Amino acid sequence: MVFTGNEHTSNCKSVQLGSIYTSDCGTLTSIKHGTTFKVYPIIINDDIILGIDIYALQKTNGNDVEVFWNPRKNNLAKQPEKFEIYVKKSH
Description:
Number of strands: 9
Largest sheet: 3 strands, mixed
Helix content: under 10%
Number of helices: 0
Strand content: over 45%
Radius of gyration: 15 Å
Strand order of the largest sheet: 1-3-2
Order of helices and strands: EEEEEEEEE
Shape: elongated
């Protein structure tokens, strides 16, 4: 798993035929390209799963605050919702 940074796009992908995964932190400092950040919850049981939660800065259109952090579905962002770091083999 490689964590990267990118100021223009929010991206996750696999390389080397799925043996290496990359995920950037989101576009936290970008206004032009949509401000986002990611949280990676780790789920450990028999398997080790790394979740990917994306939050985007959303305008409110006249509410008490101008913007708020809104959870965004990863499939709408064309990104996986999780990485399976280790999956226990069943016999």
